[in-house]
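Q: Structure for this?
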Amino acid sequence: MAMLDIDNLHAKIEGEDGKEILKGLSLKVNPGEVHAIMGPNGSGKSTLSYILAGKDDYEVTEGSVTLNGEDLLEMEIDERAAKGVFLAFQYPIEVPGVATMTFLRSALNAQRKKRGEEEISTPDFLRLVKEKAAGLGISQDMLKRGVNVGFSGGEKKRAEILQMAILEPKIAILDETDSGLDIDALKIVSEGVNALRSPERGMIVITHYQRLLNHIVPDFVHVMHKGRIVRSGGKELALELEANGYAEYQQDAA
Amino acid sequence: MNAEIRPMRTPAEQGLSGELKNLPSSGGARIVALREAAAKAFNDNGLPHRRVEEWKYTDLRTLMREALPISSPAQSAQVEAHARLLIDTGARRIVVANGAVVPELSDLADLEPGLTVQPLATALAAGGDLIARLGTLETGRYDAALALNTALAADGVAISVAPGAVIERPIHVAHVFSGKAAASFARNLVVLGEGASLTYAESFEGPEGVAYQVNSATEFVVADEASLDLVRVQEEGANALHLSTLLFEVGKAVKLNAFTFTSGAAVTRTSLYARLNGADSAVSFNGAILLKGRQHADSTLFVDHQTTGCESRELFKHVLDDSTRGVFQGKIVVRQPAQKTDGRMMSRALLLGDDAEMDNKPELEIFADDVACGHGATCGAIDDDLLFYLRARGIPLKEAQSLLVQAFVGEAIETVANDELRDALVERAEAWLKARA
């Protein structure tokens, strides 16, 4: 049994005549695997990430998603997080007035509580954050500020990876983590992600461009188009896409 | 021939007029005349209703169903048990129960040099310079709550700080109501000499389930270059009617920062009148109002810029759950000589309840031509994207809402300079959120 098993997933935007975005998507992710999902704009990549995280703007009309055999779609948003789902947002949101440290600690303790574990002690928490933040070049000043408030695009993405490092998810979904990053920032973020690769953790890396995959080398590459995975292969598929573009798939579908 | 049309007098108005037949007699001829004039004003004008512009959203004539007998002195053991607010802040505490100072619960000994703290009743009996300031601040209009207070209050706290005296330890006047339903009146006077500095807190609390009435008025006379921090916490019992009037006379180059936290009483009206008489003062009037059930709270402010170069700021944050109603009315007047005035007000409301209502009425009246004035108001629910972000990290819905509400009111609470008082306010906001979750 795969850790994350997405089977024939159909979903539409919530509402009477909501547009269907996912049209029979299937994907299996095992522990230790990194899957890249590539595809043109509007193929449904971000929708997939939101549906996995539990955003309620979408309605699943067919198919299933299980995490270690449990029905993910039945779970509340925070319950999914506690079970190990982590979405690194394409556009991390600013939360004025909630200090990053308070936020990280509330999140970690809420997850632990839900799993029946003890809350982390203050010294252990401070040590953990200090260690992880240093590796990502996140200053103490940033940690004291409101979540993402006044952060640059690159800082926001690094902050997402810090959250991931602290929450230690089972399955991480990185939604266009490379967007808005310059080469240096891309390197720092990629190193942060690579440090979190582990035999127990699965990752889905959603990206439009191949360049991220030079840094985060995937085990599998999938091409998504019009709400489905239309082709799968190894890491060499990304290079092929870089050379030929998505035109081939867009023609196929037309 | 003019036929004056007068509405029928309500039972509450009739009852209050009855109380006004027996005015307190202390304080000498000037004070007695003030009381008589206030009583006459009330008898002539009665309680305000929705056709009186300043009371448009708080129809006191309807909301105050009956006049209650004036409260009798409370038992100090009961008062002690009830007085919980701001207790661990290290402030010098003076307890006023049912409108009268309770000396055995008040810390009136070892006053810092330059500081005078007296029960108002004592000061009235003695007369003197301090009492000469009482009742001298004008509102420029008939205010029923203030008129009743002026006519009927016989005690409260009178404080003066000598010129140049910097009083480090905050003074906290704890107003407590205890006993059966009654009406309590307290009048306070705070006078700061030139260059003096004081942090003054007042709190209000009382029993749940008793429909009592509190009418408090505090006059602040702040001389040139003085500095005043005012922190207020109103957590009356859920059935109470609370009327507060705050009057400020501000000299030149004054620093004044006032903050009010309100989560109590069925009906609250806080009227604030500030007259900026001296140049180059900086004042701010801020508030956080958290309501649930069917509570109604009205904050009405009049800030009058009379002279040049003053800055005034207002920031009010309402959190409205269930079927509550919040009212913010802010008026900034800039007189012709008040060039270089910088006046701004902002009201933000977070509507948590489906039936909650917020009424905002900002007004600017500007007669000078070189000024910067502005106002803004927002109302809305908690942002869904923020909630999703917090929940996607594992924070449950209620906790995520609490964090966001805390952040929302935190912006106003942060304006309080004193660490202990600010922490106490954060803690009161947390307690409110905890009770909700």
